[in-house]
What does this fold into?
Amino acid sequence: VTAGAGRTRREAARPARQEAKRPARQETLRRHNLALVLGEVAVHGPLSRAQVAAATGLTKGTVSSLVDDLVAAGLVRTLAPTRGAVGRPGNPLALDPGGPVGVGLEIDVDYTRVAVVDLTGDVRQRRVEVADHRTSSPEASLASAAALVRDVVHAATRQGHAVAGLGVAVPGLVDTKGLLRLAPNLPGWESTPVLSVLHGHLDDGPDGLPADAHTALDNEANLAALGEQWFGGHPDLRDFVYVSGEIGVGAGIVTGGAVFRGVSGYAGELGHVPVDPDGPACGCGGRGCLEQVAGQEALLRAAGVPVDAGTTTAAPDGSVATLRRRADGGDREALRALEAAGHALGVAVSALVNVVDVPTVVLGGLYAALAPWLRGPLTAELGTRVVASSWAPTQVLVSTLGPDAAVRGAAGTVLRHILDDPEAYVPAPV
Ligand SMILES: [Zn+2]
It folds into this structure.
């Protein structure tokens, strides 16, 4: 789900007359080969120029020229030579953490989180604001989110980074045209043009986004799943369901390394799979949906923990931390609520696994924080209910990115855009 960046940086920077001088095929070839070399360094680096040539099938001369361009653009850097290497291996090449960065913004029901992520996947800046978006208008929420983005853009620019774009994660249904259609837990957010409102706040001024910024909007569970896949330290993770527990519950379904979105972009609404058809009413119009039984506020209420503002999973003194402390101390009410939530989660996730047939479930957000108590009942339900479980048992992993998963995935969409087509960042040959 991408709002196009319009003219690329190079088109904007270069006069049209110069464009006409170069044969089209040569242009296309160079563009393709820049992406090929950068992709090789990104996936398999650090690598020598000779290793890149061998892996890509390009001549060493071509690789050297392309690498020089990528180094000049701040996309690739040369590391100190490995000691004890035989022959003349040359300085190994790796992605440049000082190069362009992506900004990730997550607007969830009760907080706003922003991170700046460099090409190597490291977080350079981070801001978190506890804010209950149910009690403010979309306009007011987006204005304060934009102020947080300006703050990190300012800080990243001072560190010498070029900001390449903004990825935005929201807790609702994002259609294939980039419109937030509906956020079941945010009543005022219907058909909200999130990106164009943010552009209105961010297109001007020194701490705004550059005119050619790449911007994208997606569901937070989809982006958290991608963040986990790209930066979570699971190199073999290609087919899985990422279960995002917050006030709402969502799933990012990934098959063959790509998010499964459904026809209109709305797939993965795990939170509205019924686990108790006669249960409490839900914002979606149904009853007894998973998130009414095992979402953050439902779980806290069942555990007898006061629900207050600042209940985010990240808050050290928030309600979720209180729940953990009580469970650690053996509090019966807390343990009973966690057990019940784990079973409800297992019922819903089993239904999903039976339908989509993926081998791995990754617990994220609230469910990562509470995994020690949820894993047992969840695994029991999967073992009982997943039809193929006796020869294809479902593996349950816990998110390694915790509350950063969605912002890192959101920023990652910008970084992916650079890696897929770096030419816009590389100065044109003379
Ligand atoms: Zn529902």
